[in-house]
Amino acid sequence: MIPIVHLAIDPALAPQRPEITYTWRTLLTGMGYGWQELPWNASAVTIAYVTDPALAPSAQIVIHAQPERWANPQQVRLIGHTQCHGYTLPRLEGDTSQAYPQVVNGSLHIADDPIFAAFWLLSGYEEDQYPTLKHGYRDLSGSPMLTAGLLRRGLASAIGCWLADLLQRCGLPPGMPRWPNNAVLAASCGHDVDYPEVVRWLEPLRILYRQGIKGLRAAIDVIRGRRNHWHFHSWMALEEQLGTRSAFYFVARQGSLLEYATGRPDPFYDVQEPHFRQLFRELSAAGWEIGLHASYLAYTNYNILAAERERLATASGQPIEGNRHHYWHLDPYQPEQTLLMHEQVGFQYDASLTHNHYMGWRRSSTWPFFPWHRKLRRAIRTLQLPTGWMDDHLFGQKQFNPGERHILLNELRETVIQQGGLLLVDVHDYVYDNTLFPNWAATYRGLWEELATRGRVWFATPAAIARHWITRANQLAAVSTGLNEEAMNQPLSLKTSSQPI
Questions:
Q1: What does pLDDT average to over the chain?
Q2: Span between the terminal Cα atoms of the chain, in Å
Q3: CA dist list (Å): 328 to 24, 131, 192, 306, 370
Q4: Do both 399 and 447 map to the same domain?
Q5: Measured between alpha carbons, how far is 36 from 46 in angstroms, rounded to an integer?
Q6: Does the structure show a pLDDT above 60 at 379?
Q7: What is the average per-residue pLDDT within 231-235?
Q8: Among residues 129, 150, 175, which one ends one of the domains?
Q9: Does residue 316 carry a pLDDT above 70?
Q10: End of a domain among 132, 153, 175?
Q11: Which of 160, 262, 312, 373 is 20 to 30 A from 202, comparing alpha carbons?
């Protein structure tokens, strides 16, 4: 039996109703509650979302909405965090710092507006504060997200956990479980396939750049063909031992050294070659997922992205459900334009929203979610699986993630456990060899082994996790009334990301 939250939303919030509807649906879906939206001033209200607390209907929980923030989200700033009932919650500029609800006439009143805060984080307004660098990366230097480690706290999903805790304190049962088999969390890995075939004269230079003179012997081994990057079967054997399955994301567009040198850094392999086709058959037969690693400029045009998906589907002989962009390269200034293309092309999920330099969750959620499109004012239908850690964060990008590797990964893991979230990691295909990449694969293995010893972890491919979450979201919506998303039923025309929407 799915528990239902009875919700009343102040009619004065009508101008921002699409954004508010999206946020409530996203949070309640993550929390595992169905919803019944009641008329304003109805009785038996669980949560009243109000602009004027003095005019609120009788409700167990009264949340004070802040319409001025909804009207101007681009002017809001994150200034820090606060703790409430064990959860790390965001503090926005102008907050009262009263995280703990106050009892007023028998109702729990929440003075600041956590619903807006969740929307602001999930929809990307938080990251708009930061400079955009090469490849579309964001520079978070000096921000609370970085200095206070808030990227690793999942602030948006923490709001959902905190609200669920308040509902249970008010007598509601726990929501629908997030994961199968009573699992506490889900865990998955996606291997970006960037350099499966080494260039013998080039790779030794990269080794010496990383390791200095200590890498000379390894560099010579590569020149002589004694070491390579073709480690698919090594990853499969390792994950077979751990009882897991992962995804391999292949680039369907073949690049070149000349293109790489002139600013289009796509890998050099061809997925239509016979040895790749054979590899695809082996991966698929053994239960590993094959996904697309969209090329560096795929975000610029629908036709490019669609053609790459089709080319990989043809080479692999199977549908391609998921995607992750090479270099995390989305539209640098309007990421939602790229996310919309995923829907138009037909991906079930994408896993590209993360920071290249920094560990943690770019949109502050450990829960999967449907991203928001600001211009269309609706949710995008392709599910976003948030990536929390890329291997290079703790090696090549170590200067941006100070601290001991094990401690930083423990922090991520404990956040996911507390929130019942998804720990999705990115470990590249070519880092298996411990001589060429000391401790890279071992760090991944250690993290997965620690999760397994805790038990109640659902290890699955990203596609399996996406299918489960979408099914669960549909089940919750089916028992719910209100919070309608009329725009979701409108047909979409296919557009390139350079066309205005």
A1: 93
A2: 41
A3: 28, 16, 11, 18, 18
A4: yes
A5: 10
A6: yes
A7: 96
A8: 175
A9: yes
A10: 175
A11: 312
